[in-house]
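Let us work through a complete example step by step.
Step 1: write down the sequence.
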Amino acid sequence: MHVKVACVGGGPAGLYLSILLKRQDPSHDVTVHERDPEGSTYGWGVTYWQGLLDRLRACDPESAEAIEENSVRWNEGVAHVRDLATRQPGDEGHGIGRHRLLELLAARARALGVRLEFESEITPDDLPDADLVVAGDGVHSALRSRHAQDFGATLTPGRNRYVWLGTTKVFDSFTFAFVETEHGWIWCYGYPFSAEQSTCVIECAPETLAGLGLDRASEADSLAALEKLFAHILDGHPLIGRAASDGGSPWLTFRTLTNRTWHRDRLVLLGDAAHTTHYSIGAGTTLALEDAIALAEALRDAPDLPQALARYERERRSALLSLQSAARYSAQWYENLNRYIHLPPEQMFALLGQRHSPLLPYVPPQLYYRLDRAAGRLEALRRLKRWLGPKLARGAHARALSSRE
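Step 2: predict the structure and record it as tokens.
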């Protein structure tokens, strides 16, 4: 069906949706509205994995090739704990600068005839004249918030605090570093996204943040303190902050967003406006792009708009279930770091790689490590993990729901 579409928000999801719609039918009338000036995006690098690249290549080979050419890759992980380090092979990961990704997608969209309107703020009171309005305006979506009761948004805050930084240190692999202080542990996730820079996300418990005085420090003092704490992996390179103009603390609390429904009349949610998953699984950009793929396919194949939106929501909700569970357990692993941090480094790193498991919180860590090692060799133990893990997850989910009531 021919549609007129207005995408509100010039992030990866909205831009990629516009590309796919124009590829499917050049007669589609597609406009992307972004409230900020072109090129002003904030953010360091984003991660993705080979599976996403394969899907992008199937949808639009030209933009997939550009993304791959502008990405860096790694196939190892290294964990530093105190003065010890362990390195393990892993799945091939990719990193690309968020700014560069948006440049590539914007160029491809323009080449296909999409209208890109920057410094164009769309308010809930003045929706564009379009068959479909796509709210791709992020976790704080104004369009979703106006109809909060209809969408049924729920924001669940995590416990830990984090800050998203850059550095000129180019890591050669996905790097974890755990540092013990007199106020508790603080740790970072580092990964390269270009030949010149890496992302460095630093996280700690709120009491550690307060004990170190980082919740009250200026950004310059905070960066200097963090550079000292992580000097062993930064090799003399600086950490780079955002230099927030409002003077507020750059430390954030991650909030997991879910919505009871993803569409209302001609308004549909996309990407972070619809859902968020904890940054420790590195899936945010992937999920946003997969939303765009699913919505484009539903609009192409369904006989009318209501059926297309229902299909899109049904498919994406189903696809997200396992990742949302993995993200929840991953966040909880870090919130319960003391349970694992005193293991020998190779065991701790092995359980770090298993942090998505619903079974891990219920089994003593060293026993789980031994079971997991054995399960690599014994099919019976693999079957036990597959059977027992979901049962424990369902039980935990039921307890969580009952505690809210």
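Step 3: interpret the result. The mean pLDDT is 91.
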